[in-house]
Write a structure and sequence with these properties.
alpha/beta, single chain, Dihydrodipicolinate Reductase, domain 2, six-stranded parallel beta sheet, Rossmann fold, eight-stranded mixed beta sheet
Length: 337
């Protein structure tokens, strides 16, 4: 398969530290260029990462016929408008999560995809990691009986006023940044959409963004309860409980690249954990896998691992949690129908 030639939009840390190096080790991806509104930044990143081309504007890179696809890791408020600009000139788009500011923006992106015929997907790298694929397989296969509920947590500490996660006008806040992960992964494992959600959020008085939150997602066959904070000790965990066992992912979201990962499977027969069985997975880089799977989707004309319809559903849950935090009531996520 001919390698997919990538252009990188901006010099965000996730791109320069995680995604670009992973794609450069890929057999299906080739990073051809990187663009910034500050040409010097683009040139410096290109030099550091051995990228052939640097551009002083996104539009200049979009006009380059040697670019097949772009990766968009810009701040949340620029995800949809810049992705649409890329799509309009025929570039395939892999856009960071959350893909939009709300469901209305996702619909704009879907319209652009349908109008241009390009592939557009959301960069939820967990979707293709082996530990998550195995978890889904085990739950579907009945290893823990009937799935009843899931519990999750995700947190880190960041009070920097210069960080985009603390800027309300750029789509900052904890729910958009990390709360979206328990939503996405519980939807993956349940294989359903929540019928209703409730939640409570705490805003930082200086930044005006949510820094602490908890939510309940009520699925047809069970529930997911999760909490998150951007001003707490770093932590992450997901657990799934069934009628005959549980599965735990100790590092569910930021699996360490090129190190083994694992899931814990417990039938519950020993409260001290003596019945836990560990399944390990060979070292891998989930960002490399993400790029490979997206590239194959483009070349074969098949849907990307996280298509826009799925992105809409995830965004609908996020929107509903924001509404619930204000109303104090259960809220029903919007549907595309």
């Amino acid at each position: 398969m001919t390698k997919l030639r990538w252009g990188i939009i901006g010099v965000a840390r996730i791109a320069t530290v995680k995604v670009i190096p992973a794609m450069q080790r890929s057999e299906t991806c080739e990073v051809v260029g990187i663009a910034s509104r500050d040409l010097a930044k683009a040139q410096e990143a290109a030099k550091q990462l051995n990228i052939p081309k640097a551009y002083g504007s996104y539009e200049e890179m979009f006009a380059d016929p040697e670019i097949d696809a772009v990766y968009n890791p810009l701040p949340n408020h620029l995800h949809v408008p810049i992705s649409i600009k890329a799509a309009e000139v025929g570039k395939h788009v892999l856009c960071e999560k959350p893909i939009a500011m709300n469901t209305a923006e996702v619909l704009e992106l879907i319209a652009a995809r349908d109008r241009t015929g390009v592939t557009i997907g959301e960069a939820f790298m967990v979707r293709t990691h082996p530990q998550w694929l195995r978890t889904i397989e085990l739950v579907r296969g009945g290893r823990i009986g009937q799935l009843r509920y899931a519990m999750g947590s995700f947190g880190y500490f960041n009070r920097s006023p210069e960080n985009i996660r603390n800027m309300a006008n750029m789509g900052g806040g904890g729910l958009m940044d990390i709360g979206c992960y328990p939503i996405k992964t519980s939807r993956m494992v349940f294989g359903e959409e929540p019928r209703r959600v409730c939640g409570t959020l705490v805003d930082d008085p200086d930044f005006g963004v949510d820094i602490l939150g908890s939510a309940i997602l009520d699925y047809p066959s069970g529930q997911c309860v999760f909490g998150y904070s951007t001003q707490a000790v770093p932590n992450q965990r997901m657990q799934f409980f069934g009628t005959a066992g549980r599965i735990e992912l100790p590092i569910p979201f930021n699996a360490v690249p090129n190190e083994t990962s694992c899931i814990l499977i417990d039938d519950g027969s020993d409260i001290k954990g003596g019945s836990i069985k560990v399944e390990e997975f060979a070292p891998c880089d989930q960002y490399r896998i993400q790029g490979d799977v997206f590239a194959r989707a483009v070349r074969t004309g098949t849907p990307p691992p996280v298509p826009l319809q799925d992105s809409f559903c995830n965004m609908a849950v996020i929107d509903a949690i924001f509404r619930a935090a204000t109303s104090g009531k259960w809220e029903v996520p919007e549907t595309m129908i």
